[in-house]
């Protein structure tokens, strides 16, 4: 229960509306330390709930010490990629839903015009990729001196990507801060520890020990889509993201598989496709091309993918939602094998909401809803009326033994009469 922490009711309510029942292990470990104002050095891979582990203490700090005058952001979160920064931003928006806290996103690949508002109006939490933010600092369009909490997410990845100098410079600019939280998938190797020495002040070390269930969990989410065309745009966008190393795209019909294969090809996304009636040699050749890394996208129906043995699938994408929950589980079981974390993304149209409800009940989890900013759905999520579970009323329930015996006798008499 999130009530166990000293969190504001508005934040607890937000955790409920996003569907968190209880804190994950990293949240249990980080929240008390971070809320006590300490610096934290945490090892937590993606999928463990690390984002909420740093967002909640940051939001609580902003609620505890409300802003007295307009100004620059007070919390700065740095992330390695545009995709991750966008996810953190969406998460921040969800968790601060019941508050007046304002978040902003600054990443590369977006022109200055869309950042202007964030830079000139009052934003409380800024999520940014280091390179772009530094440009604004260098041009004196951004002042980091009002930062009170600095968060470095996926710090190991940022170092791998050569951001060390940029981060050091930003941390230097934000030198008046009170607290720094550093998250890394791993603390192994000297790099991250050495790097953290200058940035953190007497940090508390926190290592997540995700339960087996958490570890084995495939990272799953959905994108709501307005139409088939919208789903195609979402699919193209997802397949072009850099962390998609090997993907299987599922469609419900053979015609859709063929159509998608052509569509992806026309966008330079080399792929192979499988359909149930393909001769075995062609099928083997298609699978071999994936296994040999000649192509990294396979498009298939459930029937065609049956018995398919391909390792290291990083992403399963449901272009069509399966109609049955066990098929969903079967599909997503193809990713995240051999202890590796997999990702399963489903594209959901209004008419899929019933299937989605069934799947969520089956896996006993609400799948998080994600948005790709430039492909934001126009329609709101369709609400499916909840079916009341049918409670079978047992015949003769509530009758005493004597009454039951009388009823039985009457029935026997009636049957005898009929004869
Ligand atoms: P993260 O590691 O922050 O990327 O989170 C992985 C996924 O777990 C996201 O979809 C979160 O919405 C979800 N999540 C985070 N905290 C919890 C929680 N306490 N209970 C259930 N799901 C959570």
From TrEMBL:
Residues 231-383 form the Helicase C-terminal domain. Coiled coil: none annotated. Keywords: ATP-binding, Cytoplasm, Helicase, Hydrolase, Nucleotide-binding, Ribosome biogenesis. Residues 385-419 have a biased composition (Basic residues). It is found in: Cytoplasm. This is ATP-dependent RNA helicase SrmB. The lineage of its organism: Bacteria, Pseudomonadati, Pseudomonadota, Gammaproteobacteria, Alteromonadales. It catalyses: ATP + H2O = ADP + phosphate + H(+). Residues 1-28 form the DEAD-box RNA helicase Q domain. The gene is srmB. A motif (Q motif) lies at residues 1-28. Residues 31-205 form the Helicase ATP-binding domain. GO terms for cellular component: cytosol. PROSITE patterns: DEAD_ATP_HELICASE, HELICASE_ATP_BIND_1, HELICASE_CTER, Q_MOTIF. DEAD-box RNA helicase involved in the assembly of the 50S ribosomal subunit at low temperature. Exhibits RNA-stimulated ATP hydrolysis and RNA unwinding activity. It holds the Pfam family Helicase_C.
